[in-house]
Structure formats: C-alpha cells, structure tokens
Write a structure and sequence with these properties.
Layout (H helix, E strand, L loop, with lengths): L1 E6 L5 E5 L4 H10 L7 E4 L5 H12 L3 E5 L2 E5 L21 H10 L1 E5 L12 H9 L3 E5 L2 E5 L7 E3 L5 H11 L5 E5 L5 H12 L3 E3 L5 E5 L7 E4 L4 H13 L3 E5 L7 H10 L2 E4 L3 E5 L8 E4 L10 H8 L5 E6 L8 H7 L3 E5 L2 E5 L7 E3 L3 H13 L4 E5 L1 H4 L6 H7 L3 E6 L3
Parallel strand pairs: 2-14, 3-13, 9-10, 17-18, 21-22
Antiparallel strand pairs: 1-22, 1-23, 3-5, 4-5, 6-8, 7-8, 10-12, 11-12, 14-16, 15-16, 18-20, 19-20
The protein binds uridine-diphosphate-N-acetylglucosamine and phosphoenolpyruvate (PEP).
C-alpha cells in the first residue's frame, strides 16, 4: 500500500491536461464486447478502474492492448462465462458487464459490484430494465443471474434517473428485437458518450442526453474508433484545487458546458473563472464568500464533486451549507477534514461548513472523492506534511495525479505505507 505525502501552502500555477472521463471509460470498455470486431478507444484515462476492466475483458477471452491513451479491444473470441467473484468486486462499474453480456450472449452471471461504497447503492432499476426486456433475473449468493431466450424492446420508466441503469439498459436494448424507450433517463454527458459509441458500432440510439431515449435494436454491431470525452469530475477537482490554493491554473481539454454548475458556484464565491473553447482558467482570490450548494443529477452540481467542494468551502468566510440530493450520506470525508481542523457538522443530507484554516494531519481516504477532498485540503495547509492513506481509492479516478500537481508547483510524493 502507498500513501500520499503533501506539503501544502503553495498556490497552484500553470496548465493541467484533463484525461478522458472515468465514468465514460468504464462503460465504453464493456460496451465494446457487443461488437463482433475491433473497437478502438482513444483518450482513455490511465486509472486503475480501466486497468481492472481490461483484465476482466481478457478473462472473458477478448484481446485487449493499450498504447498510451489508446486501447484496442477485439471481442471476436469472447466467451460467455460466469464472473461471480474476482476483479468484478473491485469496481462499481462492473455492473455494465450485465447489460453488455446480456446483449451479446442473452445471459450473464456477474457478482454484485464493488468500488466506492460510501452508502448502499441499489441496482433495482438496472434489474427492472433487464426484466422489462424479457430477461429472468435472480440473485444467487451475491451474484446476479440474468437470462433471456430473446430480448425484446420495451417501454421502461426509471423510478430514479440512474446513470448506471440508463447505460445498462441501452447496452442490452441495442441488441434486442424491436424498440425500447427509456423514460426518466439520466442525462449525464457520459450517457451521450456511450450512445455515440454504440451508434458508431451500428446501433440506433436516439435522445441520449434527454429524459427520453429510444433504442431500435439491431442484429449485429461492428467495430469502430471513438474518442472519450474529457473527465468533468477531474476537471472540477482541479478547478477547486486552484481556487483553494489561491492559484492561477489553466485547465485544458475540458468541455466548459459540462462545468456550468461548478463555474456558477465558484463565481458566486468570488473565484475568477475564464472560459475558453476547450479550457477554463481559474484565478483564485485571497477571500471567498460562503455559499450554499445542492448536489443534484446533471446538469445540477455533480455529487462526485461534493466532497472536494466541501474542502473549498472551508476556505470561505462564514457558514456554507452543502446538501447532497443524490447520495444523502456521502460524507466520509467529513471526519477526516475535521481531523485537519475543519469545522463541519453533518445534519441529514447536509454538511454545514464554517470557514477556517486547516492543519496537517494523518488522514485516510475512505472513497475516491473523499480522497480528492483530502488532497485539496492538504494543498491548502501552510505548515507541515499531510499523510493520506487509502490512495488505492484515489487511483481509481485520477490520472497522473502526482505528476499533474507537481507540474503545477505542489510538493507531493508517494511513500510506502504499512497501514
Ligand atoms: C461508474 C459511474 O458512472 N458512476 C457514477 C454513477 O454511479 P451510479 O450509476 O451507480 O449512480 P446512479 O445514477 O445509479 O445513482 C443515482 C441515485 O439513484 C439511486 N439508485 C440507482 C440505481 C438503482 O437501481 N436504484 C437506485 O435507487 C442511487 O442510490 C442514487 O441515489 O452516477 C453517480 C451519480 O451521478 C456518480 O456518483 C458515480 O460516479
Ligand atoms: C462514485 C464514483 O464512482 P463509482 O460509481 O465508480 O464508484 C465516483 O466516480 O465518484
């Protein structure tokens, strides 16, 4: 195990390149198994979730090679085989194997997903979708068994606009007979990215990015080449880090439209945000105003940025209230920030944050974005070195974190940890 060591107190300055999006990549890699020839994915992030997913595909018989940020997936020799344990337990998005295997083979046996369990994360809407498409779904000893003699298109209303359920249904429905309509679909940009890949593979998906998605099933899907959209959560984290350290950072390879909620909130606090075509410049200020933030589904403020945003709000004058309407108990970063001197209390789904300076401490990342919150916190600390364990969570989603921060002038390094 490793730990991150950060001596803070330096304003971040310079340019950071944002990699492709984790939450697209972990859907696009399994989507490739629906094709019958090679799929090439460009702008792929170098993160552990993607490495684990490529191993899973190899275990299923696909040929997967990676050269820089390009991955080639040849699924022509893929076999249908149960995946109850092992690597599927390491990441949340292994649930996409359910929709992809179901679409390709009409059956799937997949262990319940792992990843960041900051609160119970049900998959009832995924299952409801597979059943509506004609599959029989059972949970046997913690593995989901799904089987369909013939997938048939259906009208599916999602009780919650779930990103995972929307994508999983799109994957299976793209090979079903007839048309599927998903109502109350999630609208996150990653869903559009998956639809773009599927359509390039020969699928017929319309309406992705709106609350109604129509999928006309096709008999076969073929290989293609696709470039993954930039990671809006990584971009948002660097925007927050630049503001928290009172720095001046150009965040490059972003889609500013995806960052609108974050940009609006930063401006409300007093951060200067300059938008360009594919980049955003953040210019920090000595003083920030306390604000209220509500994490919602897209295009609202992203729940995945809620934890690092909590840290930024510790740098504002006065009391801020941050409420998470997506995950009401996603506050594992709060006790660790408190250990660093933050004044935060959690009430229901809200964190109430009183601004003040943070101190160096030994802290533990309990999940990916809790880790990001601690990294930002450590960067603001003026004296001493902060030690962050649980780095394996951070490595799930931040591509070249140490290199990027070092290039921006931060003092950050990895050490072996016995914890
Ligand atoms: C790999 C990936 O893309 N992960 C993202 C995805 O996770 P994930 O797809 O798991 O999140 P969902 O959009 O499904 O969850 C949204 C809400 O719906 C609820 N729900 C979800 C599914 C279900 O069957 N039943 C149900 O009740 C969840 O408890 C949660 O309250 O979207 C989340 C919300 O933007 C992000 O935090 C994650 O980073
Ligand atoms: C919660 C996250 O991811 P996952 O759904 O893969 O655990 C995240 O990216 O913040």
């Amino acid at each position: 195990m490793e730990k991150l060591m950060i001596r803070g107190g330096r304003p971040l300055r310079g340019t950071v390149q944002i990699s492709g999006a984790k939450n697209s990549a972990v859907a696009l890699v399994p989507a490739a198994i629906l094709a019958e020839s090679e799929v090439v994915l460009d702008n792929l992030p170098e993160i552990s979730d993607v490495a684990v997913y490529s191993d899973i595909l190899r275990e299923l018989g696909a040929t997967v090679t990676r050269d820089g940020d390009t991955m080639r997936i040849d699924p022509s020799e893929l076999i249908s085989r149960p995946m109850p344990n092992g690597k599927v337990k390491l990441l949340r998005a292994s649930y996409y194997l359910m929709g992809a295997m179901l679409g390709r083979f009409g059956e799937a046996i997949i262990g319940l997903p792992g990843g960041c369990n900051f609160e119970p994360r049900p998959i009832d809407q995924h299952i409801k979708g597979f059943e509506a498409l004609g599959a029989t779904v059972t949970n046997e000893h913690g593995s989901i068994h799904i089987k369909a003699a013939q997938l048939c298109g259906a009208k599916i209303y999602l009780d919650v606009a779930s990103v995972g359920a929307t994508i999983n249904i799109m994957l299976a429905a793209s090979r079903a007979q007839g048309s599927t309509i998903i109502e109350n679909a999630a609208k996150e940009p990653e869903i559009i990215d998956v639809a773009t890949l599927l359509n390039a593979m020969g699928a017929n998906v319309k309406g992705a990015g709106t609350e109604t998605i129509r999928i006309e099933g096709v008999r076969k899907l073929h290989g293609c080449r696709h470039s993954i959209i930039p990671d809006r959560i990584q971009a948002g984290t660097y925007m927050i880090a630049a503001a928290a350290t009172r720095g001046d950072v150009l965040i490059d390879n972003v889609i500013p439209k995806h960052m609108e909620a974050m940009t609006a909130k930063l401006e409300e606090m007093g951060v200067q945000v300059v938008e360009m075509d594919e980049s955003i410049r953040i210019i920090g200020s000595p003083e920030y105003t306390a604000i209220d933030v509500k994490a919602l589904v897209y295009p609202g403020f992203a729940t995945d940025l809620q934890s690092p945003m909590t840290t930024l709000l510790t740098q504002a004058k006065g009391v801020s209230i941050l409420t998470d309407y997506v995950y009401g108990t996603r506050f594992k970063h709060v006790p660790e920030l408190t250990r660093m001197g933050a004044n935060i209390r959690v009430e229901g789904r809200s964190a109430i944050i009183e601004g003040g300076k943070l101190n160096a401490a030994k802290v533990k990342a309990a999940d990916l974005r809790a880790g990001a919150a601690l990294v930002v916190a450590a960067l603001t600390v003026e004296d001493g070195v902060t030690e962050i364990t649980g780095v394996e969570y951070i490595d799930r989603g931040y591509d070249h974190l140490v290199e990027n921060l070092t290039r921006l002038g931060a003092e950050v390094w990895r050490e072996n940890s016995s914890e």
